[in-house]
Write a structure and sequence with these properties.
This protein is mainly alpha-helical. The protein has helices at about 1-15, 20-30, 60-85, 90-95, 100-130, 135-150, 155-160, 165, 185-190, 190-215, 220-230, 235-265, 275-285, 290-320, 330-340, and strands at about 170-175, 180-185. It contains 15 helices and two strands.
Length: about 350
């Protein structure tokens, strides 16, 4: 019996067709890890269809209330500006691009650029002096900042303009001798423009020194120690490691100072220098149109500071590369993202886009 059964089994195995390789793999996989037996209560569930549901935005009623109130306030102010005839917008348009006003604007920009550049260069030198190990350099830098931050800018302007009363001549030579290489009358050297630049530059340098010093101190000391351990020269440590990180702390306050300098040039009117504000004063003293001419100056100052704010945004964005994982979006990118986010959503899954 056993030999006959063995013969029948061998003949059945030889006559059976060989399965495909894929079938062998499936068979072995099923054999090695069989699926758990389903319980009697389990049944196959169809996939849920969410196409009939609607996307409902989150309701924020207080946001809408605040938006409506602010919008009403803006409309009220705009309506008052447009309908009040005492603003005299025709006079504003007449003098806004007048040649004398444009010339005053150019002088204001000239004072801002020259005083801002010289002030920050001198402020950088003073900041390095304050951070040095020399007691003399530290004392001189501290005293400079203390004096020029303690006195009003108006007083400084008048002092420099009247320097000829204190020193009749300005000379260059060997100290404590009678040898002179250069000598000139102080009243000739210190003109209205020179006094304005000198006052604005020295006042700006005192504040810039503290801004730059604070930015340098904001960099972690471990950065310098690691760079020194790697053998990086001191100059490259300062320019490639310290300053790029310090710029993130320096830039916001530095641009505030530049914007303040633009408006601070208006104080030069005490020297009778024909910058924007003094020019506007001369015009409204002649025409008695005080408010429209002041509005002309205001609009020009707003335009200048708006341009500087745009530059500030993009420069800060450039120096934020080492601090943030993703750069902040530009206004154009924010607008695109807003319209892309608030675009209508197509929930009809049956219609595929072509």
């Amino acid at each position: 019996m056993s030999s006959a059964a063995t013969t029948v089994a061998q003949s059945a195995q030889q006559s059976a067709p060989e399965p495909a390789p894929g079938a062998l793999l499936e068979h072995s996989a099923v054999t090695e890890s069989p699926a758990p037996a389903a319980s009697q209560g389990d049944t196959a569930r169809p996939a849920a269809d969410y196409s009939r549901y609607k996307v409902v935005p989150a309701r924020r009623p207080w946001r809408w209330v605040g938006t409506v109130l602010v919008a009403l306030g803006v409309v009220a102010v705009a309506w008052s500006l447009a309908t009040n005839p005492r603003w005299e917008w025709g006079v504003v348009a007449q003098w806004f691009t007048a040649q004398s006003v444009v010339n005053g604007l150019v002088e204001t920009l000239k004072l801002t650029v020259i005083s801002g550049a010289l002030g920050f260069v001198l402020g950088f030198i003073l900041a390095l002096m304050r951070l040095s190990a020399s007691p003399l350099l530290v004392s001189v830098s501290w005293t400079f900042s203390w004096i020029f931050r303690s006195t009003p800018l108006l007083v400084q302007m008048l002092l420099w303009y009247n320097l000829g009363y204190l020193y009749e001549k300005v000379s260059l030579g060997i100290p404590f001798t009678d040898i002179r290489f250069f000598e000139v009358q102080t009243t000739t050297l210190i003109s209205q423009f020179a006094a304005a630049v000198l006052g604005l530059t020295l006042n700006q340098a005192a504040y810039s020194a503290e801004i730059i010093r604070g930015g340098i101190l904001s960099v972690d000391q471990g950065q310098l120690e690691a760079a020194a351990a790697l053998g990086i020269p001191a100059w490259r440590r300062s320019t490639r490691i310290v300053l790029p990180q310090a710029m993130r702390a320096i830039l916001p306050t530095a641009f505030n100072e530049i914007i303040g300098l633009v408006k601070g040039t208006s104080i030069v009117y005490v020297l009778a220098y024909s910058e924007l504000f003094y020019t506007v004063q001369v015009i409204y003293n002649r025409t008695q149109q005080v408010l429209p001419l002041l509005l002309v100056a205001t609009l020009w100052y707003v335009a200048i500071t708006s341009v500087l704010s745009v530059f500030q945004y993009y420069i800060e964005r450039h120096y934020s590369k080492g601090a943030v994982r993703n750069l902040p979006l530009t206004p154009l990118q924010k607008a695109r993202k807003f319209f892309a986010t608030h675009a209508p959503v197509n929930l009809d899954r049956t219609k595929e886009p072509r």
